[in-house]
Write a structure and sequence with these properties.
By secondary structure, the chain is mainly α. The protein contains 19 helices and no strands.
């Protein structure tokens, strides 16, 4: 007797909403949370992993770099594979592969095994992330439900990194650093079951072909740039390796753009990124994550190494910011986007975020959390909650179903590359400023305690200057978003369509029979 098959919802038409769509959103959101938090959950566990596996200070960065390199470099390819093979199928393959790579990393017996596992995690995340966003795009295509769904998704995308820091602190402090990887296995298992039973999708494009030259050029260019940025953190931006990688990456992406105009089946149809509002949304996403992820590095180091917080307490310090981001995204952005143009959320949100970052430029070696840190982080959370949801909704709006995967991948690429550049660029500014401060203030004959205090002051001064730069980038992003994101709100579009329909009907009535 044959085994009963698991029932899978049939794809529904745009006019017939998927009856399981809200449960489907929970599945998609859980997968996205796993991918986003994994970029930061290992940060707090890294010292323990370095001790257990005898990693050197020189190669420990590969625990982070191997993930970001594979993830950022392969996103465009993952998005196009989702369009060709089918988003649900790619989503499930990504989940299973991510869980297997996490189990491999958790059981690592040496550094090479851990680095390989992290690279595999990044590769499967590059399949999973664009599939998740494109499934959301096609499941919620119209109206207020779309805004609400993107509000939830945007909150997770923004708060996931901070949640990763908290979860990493809890698992490292009470269990073991390996559980920062093992935790993905049960999450992925639950998500796979939910995907099989709750998600529906159309079939892939069997008549289409993968653009192999485009995949090589696009992925090669992104890998070179992400690798250059990761190396800049330790070697400096003037390093020959970093400069060479940036030149090679830029050249590959330029040839990629040229090829996409001529390819019979382009991996990234250029009309996707050339559309004004979509391009502006992607620039806003990259700028926002550049500033926000750079701050995570500084603030985590500041809380633990300057103020002496434990990993758990440092992770908990991000909770108010995460809560504010979730509230702003689900209760403000999701409710207002139906009525007002996206730029009236994105641009003010980035200005509010810039205000929060500017407030954090005044912290000192002995600052109080409630008075000096909490206000700035909550302002940043409020601002980012206003930004992430409308950015994602606008960037993926109006895209043909066969291009939704690669469009989603492009949004994820903007987020990933922006975060990588922000971490490295702002860290370079901070370390250079710190060194200059020490050189100008160090005096012969001072005691060891005075030297220690001066070092702390110099480090915090470096953080302050870099955070000021982050605020400046956020202001620039606000201006770009206001000028470029010209899309109208759903209500404005509905009114315009109704007016156009009325004029057409009036013209038809006035035409002689």
């Amino acid at each position: 007797m044959s085994e009963p098959a698991i029932s899978t919802p049939e794809p529904t038409s745009p006019d017939q909403p998927d009856p399981h769509r809200w449960w489907g959103l929970a599945v998609i959101a859980l997968a996205q949370l796993m991918v986003v938090l994994d970029a930061t959950i290992v940060n707090i566990a890294l010292p323990s992993a370095q001790h257990d596996l005898h990693l050197t200070n020189g190669n420990r960065q590969w625990v982070i770099t191997a993930y970001t390199l594979a993830f950022g470099g392969l996103l465009l390819l993952g998005g196009r594979v989702a369009d060709l093979v089918g988003r649900k199928r790619t989503f499930i393959i990504g989940l299973i592969g991510f869980a297997a790579a996490s189990a491999l990393g958790g059981g690592a017996v040496n550094g090479s095994m851990l680095f390989a596992a992290r690279a595999l995690q990044g590769a499967f995340a590059a399949l999973l992330a664009p599939s998740a966003l494109s499934l959301l795009t096609t499941t919620f295509s119209l109206g207020r439900e779309r805004a609400k769904a993107f509000g939830i998704y945007g909150a997770i995308a923004g708060a996931g990194a901070a949640i990763g820091l908290l979860l990493g602190g809890i698992l490292t402090e009470f269990l073991d650093w390996r559980w920062c990887l093992y935790v993905n296995v049960p999450i992925a298992a639950i998500t796979v079951f939910g995907a099989l039973t709750l998600l529906s999708d159309r079939q892939g494009q069997k008549e289409s072909h993968l653009d192999i030259p485009g995949a090589i050029l696009g992925c090669g260019g992104l890998v070179a740039i992400v690798y250059a940025v990761s190396e800049a953190e330790s070697k400096g931006w003037s390093s020959v390796l970093v400069i060479t990688l940036l030149i090679v990456g830029g050249a590959l992406l330029a040839v990629f753009a040229w090829w996409q105009k001529r390819a019979p089946h382009p991996m990234l149809p250029l009309h996707i990124v050339s559309e004004r509002s979509r391009g502006g949304s992607m620039i806003a996403m990259g700028t926002a994550t550049l500033a926000m992820f750079g701050l995570f590095l500084f603030l985590t180091y500041y809380l633990q190494n300057v103020l002496g917080y434990s990993p758990l307490r440092a992770g908990a310090a991000y909770l108010p910011m995460s809560a504010m981001l979730i509230i702003a995204s689900t209760q403000i952005s999701a409710r207002l986007l139906h009525y007002i143009p996206p730029r009236l959320l994105i641009s003010p949100g980035m200005l509010i975020g810039a205000g929060g970052l500017f407030a954090l430029t005044y912290i000192g070696p002995h600052s109080n959390y409630v008075e000096h840190i909490l206000p700035g982080t909550m302002l940043l959370g409020l601002g980012m909650g206003l930004v992430f949801m409308p950015v994602m909704a606008t960037a993926t709006s109006g895209v043909a179903p066969q291009d939704s995967g690669v469009t989603s991948a492009t949004v994820n690429t903007a987020q990933q590359v922006g975060g990588s550049i922000g971490t490295s660029l702002l860290n370079t500014i901070a370390t250079t400023t710190t060194a200059s401060y020490l050189a100008s203030h160090m005096r012969p004959g001072i005691s060891k305690s005075q030297q220690a205090q001066l070092s702390k002051t110099a480090v915090v001064h470096g953080f302050n200057i870099a955070t000021g730069w982050a605020a400046g980038f956020m202001v620039v992003g606000s201006v770009v978003a206001y000028l470029m994101v010209t899309a109208r709100s759903p209500r404005q579009r509905e009114a315009a369509d109704a007016e156009a329909g009325a004029e057409t009907a009036a013209g038809a009535e006035g035409t002689p029979g």
